[in-house]
Amino acid sequence: MAAMLFAFAVSCLHADPLPSWNSTAPKKAIMEFVEKVTTSGSAEYVQPSDRIAVFDNDGTLWSEQPAYFQLFFAIDRIKALAPKHPEWQTEEPFASLLKGDVKAALAGGDKALFDIVMATHAGLTTEEFEKVVTEWMATAKHPQSGKPFNSMVYQPMLELLAYLRANQFKTFIVSGGGIEFMRPWAEKTYGIPPEQVVGSSGGLKYEVRDGTPVLVKTPELVLNDDNVGKPVGIQRHIGRRPIAAFGNSDGDYQMLEWTTAGNGPRFGLIVHHTDAEREYAYDRDSHIGKLSKGLDAAKTKGWTVVSMKEDWNTIYPSP
Amino acid sequence: MAAMLFAFAVSCLHADPLPSWNSTAPKKAIMEFVEKVTTSGSAEYVQPSDRIAVFDNDGTLWSEQPAYFQLFFAIDRIKALAPKHPEWQTEEPFASLLKGDVKAALAGGDKALFDIVMATHAGLTTEEFEKVVTEWMATAKHPQSGKPFNSMVYQPMLELLAYLRANQFKTFIVSGGGIEFMRPWAEKTYGIPPEQVVGSSGGLKYEVRDGTPVLVKTPELVLNDDNVGKPVGIQRHIGRRPIAAFGNSDGDYQMLEWTTAGNGPRFGLIVHHTDAEREYAYDRDSHIGKLSKGLDAAKTKGWTVVSMKEDWNTIYPSP
């Protein structure tokens, strides 16, 4: 019995925590960093409460092509709400969306995107919105893969999240995506609870309706959690500087910069989309998830760049 | 040896987790609630991840008389900064403050308070501000007790925080006070880490100064975390409804209302300041920590009211 237990313990100690990562430089860098900060007595030991790790979502934890998944949600909402909004038949960006012409709808740039998100996200109570997101996630399918959107998460990143948590890291999402769009499924999908999700945030208004208190989503932008907004979101929600940051696009540049400029051991990592066959390949010229500045800076900043094609032996979890 | 261990285990099981609480109704109500939601198999069992408890700070975890402690901090900052602001000698509310006339300074109402807070809190980087708060907390003394401000915390509430955490609750501060004013000392004083502190929040701006990234505090109000702002702050930061809320003034009314209106077992508690001898006695007519609406509603809402005089055998921790 004792021998069996011992054998089991030894096999546990030697189990690979990152089996979907090839034995290339990024995996080695991650594991060296984690061992360094968790070895008590080492000069680079970091106490558990300071082991904060932040993850971008779109393109870092799940796919983001051919468009941000939240945009597909918004389009489905526009279609569902259209009968109540006859004016959308002629008003942009809604008219183009209802005709199925996403490209024309988005020709209006950030303003068009903002209008789409606000029209589909505001007005509901937080509980109504949570229900709408949960139902959509359970039924909607990605237009190219035909799979549920929350199955298009990266298996290597799921392993990384679990590995960090097993080493007493607290893992947070810090995403340009909507905070209330991510919270309903982030715990089940990533093991990240609602209070550890940071994202772009709209307004909220407290009301008592027929004796029942509700929080109503209002059409303001309280935090644009992208670019320079990411360190702001980190400070506002977490209140201390992370020691590790994981991103994939130039929208993550300041989050990586802020994280890795701190004192003591730091880790920055960029997921580079290089696998047209198993996922998508894009970087400097992409309209979504553009990665140019980050790719140039990675070497001087000491950030690890992961090539999905070379460094990951698996992309998505097996169904 | 086994007998000793057994005796130790039994004594642990019977140790009183709330020794500073008298054996009156509030203590009984707290312990019944905690036992109910933590007994697996019971109809009112709540899974650990949903055991969210929120605490007001001023008047609930520490004293708030004769003025909010953060105001003493702001006044000390005004004095320290005055040499750089000759205009404050004639400009209100600063002129009165510098003459030591707090009452005249605050005659300007919320606008005066806002000006004082912004003048003393904005302009610094988050790291500079943290240093200023930490130094002040280590040296400043309460004008009446002569004690450090963070020693004027309530021993019964420290026991309650520890008791809830021992029962797998996650404890949060949700305070009208400044989020960055509380974070530097909340972990050491209350065991509440920065990411579990919600408070009134100013603006933040990300800048790179001579190659070093900083977050600069700006003079805007992003969240007024009081009254209807408390449920908003809870949703923004925590993203789910707490099952227990602890407050002391009408500024906590909506937080208590929002928390206890949820489905399943809920707990709301109001600390009533009834002890002029050991602390302060005030409620309906107080200019600080006014408690009137909450006192009227407690019975119909099922909120527990703690009389500091009757229900607590100790107020402050022994030095």
From TrEMBL, chains A, B:
SUPFAM superfamilies: HAD-like. It holds the Pfam family HAD. One of its GO terms (molecular function) is hydrolase activity. Coiled coil: none annotated. The keyword Membrane does not apply. Keywords: Hydrolase, Signal. InterPro entries: HAD-like_SerB, HAD-like_sf, HAD_sf. PANTHER family: PHOSPHOSERINE PHOSPHATASE (PTHR43344). This is Haloacid dehalogenase-like hydrolase. It comes from Luteolibacter yonseiensis.
